[in-house]
């Protein structure tokens, strides 16, 4: 553009006025070609050409922080990103080791025309808002790490920590996105029993103190209050993402509203002998018709989780498939399943996978192991908001156990399992489109 402005300015001088018309037009044409060849757009490919998929999400977030819209090119080369070129953006891409290509305006326009073709399963989703992110996590030390926190740190995406007090103090509306990981919302401390005695005692002291301050007699009642606040946050337009035991225990707590399902070991009194009959599945988000397990030492909370002995799957053959959605019609699941691979290596957790028969029909299944009759990745909505449940604990550590060293994501910069987490983090940045009818 500067070349053209300079040409117009110089054309006022006598040298240009005395130039032959043919030469003048030729020079103008050359300058127009030079202008068209100027690289004004950045394309960040997200297929196998990308050296660091996880850092690429962080760059997209960082560009949004600099008041620049980002095009999320759904189903184009693995869900690539496009945005206007600046020297600052290029410096950041190089510093983070993210692969990119420069395009002229004309090239980028042709790319957008290709995506807009009604016969191709692609679309452009405008990212225009910087999502405010909160991670729900205990203040005290935990014997396990958190995959979402790990990938947020690696991708250099900022977030705040919140826990029960912040939720009960109604601070969630200041955020767009809330992550829940490896939490037990039933008030049974992950059914840890005596396996993590020191941690259990610290958690009980912390949780009982919060319960007293907010007028609850039991931790299970306080956790139910937290669950209801989170549900209201989602219904009001928030986005909730949960992994591992934060998925099924969240729904169990909703279904067991007012029913004592917590053993004496954890709250000082016994369970309601009619607890199963009193569950209200109309209150849960994702799951239905499950049996709640009342034993204090059972590693499982309910029949929702497809237990290891039932699955017939082991590390060498544990995979799940991502489903393909229409980018032009089903933007939400399309965004949440963007990836350079469609077959994802499975991974264990206290809650690993969801039995298909317990998933509500209103939920959208986005990833599953059909032969095992299990769902690994699903999404749904309530009110104006959206939720996603993702089974398992760490996408790059199949048997991740408490006390082990955190996964070093520098060794897994192209992890398709971790990409699913980052898809969810960018989702709230999208400009919502009107539903097509």
Your description of this structure?
With about 425 residues, the protein is an alpha+beta fold. The protein folds into 2 domains: about 1-125, 2-Layer Sandwich (Alpha-Beta Plaits); about 135-430, Rossmann fold (3-Layer(aba) Sandwich). Helices cover about 35% and strands about 15% of the residues. It is built from 16 helices and 15 strands. The chain has helices at about 1-10, 15, 20-35, 55-65, 85-95, 105-115, 145-155, 165-170, 195-215, 220-235, 245-255, 265, 275-280, 310, 330-335, 415-425; strands at about 40-45, 70-75, 80-85, 100-105, 125, 135, 160, 175-180, 240-245, 320, 345, 355, 365-370, 375-380, 385-390. The strands form 2 sheets. Strands 6, 7, 8, 9, 10, 11, 12, 13, 14 and 15 form a 10-stranded mixed sheet that branches. Strands 4-1-3-2-5 form a 5-stranded antiparallel sheet, sandwiched between helices. The longest helix has 17 residues, at about 195-215. It is globular, with a radius of gyration of 26 Å. It starts with a helix and ends in an 11-residue tail after the last helix. The relative contact order is 0.13. Residues about 1-10 and about 25-35 have low confidence and may be disordered. This is Asparagine synthetase B.
């Amino acid at each position: 553009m500067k070349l053209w402005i300079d040409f117009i300015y110089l054309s006022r001088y006598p040298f240009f006025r005395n130039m032959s018309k043919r030469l003048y037009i030729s020079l103008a044409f050359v300058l127009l070609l030079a202008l068209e060849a100027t690289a004004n757009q950045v394309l960040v490919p997200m297929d196998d050409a990308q050296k660091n998929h996880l850092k690429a999400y962080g760059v997209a977030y960082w560009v949004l922080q600099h008041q620049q819209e980002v095009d999320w090119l759904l189903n184009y080369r693995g869900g690539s990103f496009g945005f206007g070129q600046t020297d600052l953006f290029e410096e950041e891409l190089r510093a983070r080791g993210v692969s990119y290509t420069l395009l002229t305006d004309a090239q980028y326009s042709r790319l957008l025309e290709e995506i807009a073709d009604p016969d191709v399963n692609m679309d452009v989703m405008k990212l225009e808002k910087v999502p405010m992110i909160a991670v729900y996590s205990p203040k005290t030390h935990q014997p396990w790490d958190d995959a979402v926190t790990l990938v947020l740190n690696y991708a250099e995406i900022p977030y705040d920590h919140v826990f029960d007090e912040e939720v009960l103090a109604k601070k969630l509306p200041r955020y767009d996105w809330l992550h829940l990981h490896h939490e037990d919302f039933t008030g049974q401390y992950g059914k840890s029993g005596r396996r993590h005695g020191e941690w259990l005692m610290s958690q009980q002291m912390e949780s009982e103190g919060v319960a007293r301050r907010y007028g609850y007699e039991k931790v299970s009642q306080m956790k139910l209050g937290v669950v209801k606040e989170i549900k209201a946050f989602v219904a009001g337009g928030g986005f909730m993402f949960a992994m591992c035991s934060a998925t099924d225990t969240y729904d169990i707590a909703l279904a067991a509203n007012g029913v004592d399902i917590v053993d004496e070991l954890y709250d000082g009194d016994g369970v309601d002998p009619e607890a199963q009959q009193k569950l209200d599945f109309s209150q849960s988000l994702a799951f239905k018709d499950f049996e709640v397990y009342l034993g204090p030492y059972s590693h499982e909370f309910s029949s929702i989780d497809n237990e290891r002995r039932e699955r017939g799957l082991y590390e060498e053959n544990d995979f799940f498939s991502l489903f393909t959605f229409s980018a032009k019609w089903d933007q939400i699941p399309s965004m949440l399943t963007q990836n350079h691979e469609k077959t994802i290596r499975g991974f264990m957790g206290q809650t690993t996978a969801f039995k298909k028969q317990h998933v509500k029909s209103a939920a959208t299944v986005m990833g599953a192991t059909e032969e095992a009759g299990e769902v690994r990745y699903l999404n749904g909505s309530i009110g104006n908001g959206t939720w996603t449940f993702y089974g398992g604990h760490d996408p790059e550590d199949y048997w991740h156990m408490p006390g082990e060293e955190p996964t070093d994501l520098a060794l897994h910069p192209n992890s398709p399992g971790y990409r699913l987490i980052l898809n969810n983090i960018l989702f709230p940045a999208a400009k919502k489109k009107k539903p097509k009818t």
